[in-house]
Amino acid sequence: MQVIFPTIIDLIVLAIAYCYVFAVIGIGELLRRIRNYSPSLTRKLIHLGAGFSVFTVPFYTHAWTAIIVAISFVMLIFLASPKSPVKSLRTMFSVMAREGDYLSGHIWGPFLYAISISTLVAIFTLVPSLTQFFILPAMALTAMYLGDGLAPIIGAKYGKHRYTIGNSTRSVEGSLVVFLASILGALFCFFFFDWFASGGITTYDICQMVIFTLVCGTAATLIEGVSPSGADNITVPILTTLVIFCVAIIIHPSLLASIIP
């Protein structure tokens, strides 16, 4: 089997992705120190920003190179702890940890966040026939970054109508934010992946865009609403991708033929 090594372009894009994610984490740490913001707020900032590193995927010569970034952050986040001998990992913990994380020693929310990114990036870049459909998991991931990231902020301030499912209590206002932010995120994905990154080549028509954005917003909202507390970082992107992918097959039955030999 031929071994394919990353090209110079891959390494440059890889460096850009690393710089971007570390910059987001660095800004979070800077705000925590200078403005005395709580780890809760800086974690939300990182939640909203760091995941957009997957938007570098179309610019790799070999798309699978993006997995290197995703998996390395899974490892770093898992190793980050207040007792780590590496100062940068202790800093990462202090910037991203919740109150309960100090008891467990690991930052599980961001860890699941990184796992979901790694899983979807791996599936849609290692399988050659799926790479052209990377826009689908990108929409679901963006729903997690924006929708699930903004919902707690807006819900905490404006949420007056609460509902409880299992051990999780959320607000109707927060869920509405998930829906609207997911739709906006999906529209941005269409602009970026289906126009900008492809050099102006449009794959989907307006009707299909409307269907996908509404399905993405609805699926992400319902999944986020019923997910156990802390698990939505993995349930929202994974399950929303599955739903969107099923809709894509319904719209384009030939899609299965292009995937399955």
Write the layout of secondary structure elements.
Elements: H1 8-34, H2 39-49, H3 66-79, H4 87-96, H5 101-104, H6 108-126, H7 128-131, H8 135-158, E1 162-165, E2 168-171, H9 172-196, H10 206-226, H11 232-251, H12 254-259
What does this structure look like?
Strand 1 and strand 2 form a beta hairpin. The protein is globular and about 50 Å long. The protein folds into two domains: 1-126, no CATH class; 131-261, no CATH class. The chain has a two-stranded antiparallel ribbon. With 261 residues, the chain is mostly helical. The chain has helices spanning 8-34, 39-49, 66-79, 87-96, 101-104, 108-126, 128-131, 135-158, 172-196, 206-226, 232-251, 254-259; strands at residues 162-165, 168-171. Helix content is 71%, strand content 3%. The model has no long low-confidence stretch (mean pLDDT 86). It has twelve helices and two strands, in the order ααααααααββαααα.
Structure keywords:
2 domains, single chain, 261 residues, 2 strands, mainly alpha, 12 helices
User: What do the pLDDT scores average to?
Assistant: 86
Largest sheet geometry: 2 strands, antiparallel
Question: Helical element count?
Answer: 12
Spans of at least 5 consecutive residues whose pLDDT stays below 50 are: none
Q: Over the alpha carbons, how many angstroms does the gyration radius reach?
A: 19 Å
Strand tally is 2
Overall, the morphology is globular
